[in-house]
Amino acid sequence: MKATAKAHTNIALIKYWGKRNEEIILPTNNSLSLTLDGFYTETTVALHEDYTEDHFILDGQPVVGEQYKRVTTFLDLIRKLAGKNIYADVRSINNVPTAAGFASSASGFAALAAAGTKAMGIHLSEQELSRLTRQGSGSACRSIYGGFAEWRMGKENDGSDSYAVPIAPVEHWDLRVAAVILSSTMKKVSSREGMKRTVESSPFFDGWVNSIPKDLEEIKEGIKARNMEKVGSIAEANCLRMHATTLGANPPFTYWHDTTLTVMQTVKQLREQGVPAYFTIDAGPNVKVLYLPENEKTVEKVLREIPGVTDVRLSKSGQGVTYI
Ligand code: 2P0
């Protein structure tokens, strides 16, 4: 009747950017990510026989509106699976800067799916849990696993073959990520809206989708060989191609701020000085920098010195979903 789960967010190295089905969240391409131990959500789901609706408290504050609706709609899926018509008290602690380009929805829905199914007495395999989680938020299906995970888009229209699979566990490679925080303000175009606009109107969208299979194949070889240059350069190019699609949309938009560009240039300069560092950017202005443990001090110092950078948070590769 009550369960608590913890899930980490993930950073996509091959991005998910486009849906072929918005209702059950089916993507237009496979994506691949690294789960991060620095950013997580812890969620407790407690079922109450006497409730007539769900309650959702995030960081101590009751949540209403669209965010609340996404949670209750997701709990409806779990209720249907369990065959139980019982409402829940959901309490989440988010250790992720919300809606600033960090996928808090990834750790959020992964933790909710795990705690929710356990509280309802349903036992799912990781694959089944990933498939369910996908319907809360696409990128969340990758957070079920630690280390590197790939979300396979699947071919079916019912979503039965669309879920993430593990690619390499945490122990495989100590690849680090520095989250460079420029602004913690809410972004103007949500990733959901941005993706939709891109699919519907950007003439660059087909080019983006067609570029994925080669990137995926090569980055998986790079991960296997722990080849920083290969993994980093593919991730960087894939990120730039994703962001290029937004400039072609109608109306056009970008998630980048001026400081975003400065961070990108600084990362390139680090490389010119012999420090292997590569950037990737999600649907927000913040930049994530991939680096190796031996370069941690240099990378952190250089990033912190950039005017307009408000914080730098370092993260290792993180574990998959756990029950507490
Ligand atoms: C990703 N992003 O692969 C990409 C890269 C943002 C840029 O997944 O609509 O919150 O809930 O499925 O997963 C952010 O989108 O979108 C995202 P929904 P989600 O991480």
Descriptive terms for the model:
324 residues, alpha+beta, Ribosomal Protein S5, domain 2, Alpha-Beta Plaits, eight-stranded mixed beta sheet, four-stranded antiparallel beta sheet, binds ligand 2P0, diphosphomevalonate decarboxylase activity, MVD-like_N, Mev_diP_decarb, nucleotide-binding
Report the bound ligands by name, code or SMILES.
ligand 2P0
Instruction: Please outline the major beta sheet.
Output: 8 strands, mixed
Q: What's the total number of strands?
A: 14
Mean of residue pLDDT?
95
DSSP helix fraction: 25-40%
CATH class category label of the largest domain: Alpha Beta
Q: Assign the CATH architecture of the largest domain.
A: 2-Layer Sandwich
Rg over CA atoms, rounded to whole Å, is 19 Å
Structural class: alpha+beta
What would the principal axes of the Cα set say about the shape? Answer: globular
Distance between the termini: 14 Å
> If you consult CATH, what is the topology of the largest domain?
Ribosomal Protein S5, domain 2
Helix and strand sequence:
EEEEEEHEHHEEEHHHHEEHEE
Q: Give the count of helical stretches.
A: 8
User: Low-confidence runs (pLDDT<50, min 5 residues)?
Assistant: none
Strand proportion, as a percent range, falls in: 25-35%
InterPro entries: GHMP_kinase_C_sf, Mev_decarb, Mev_diP_decarb, MVD-like_N, Mvd1_C, Ribosomal_Su5_D2-typ_SF, Ribsml_uS5_D2-typ_fold_subgr
EC number: 4.1.1.33
GO molecular function: diphosphomevalonate decarboxylase activity
Domain Mvd1 C-terminal: 180-305
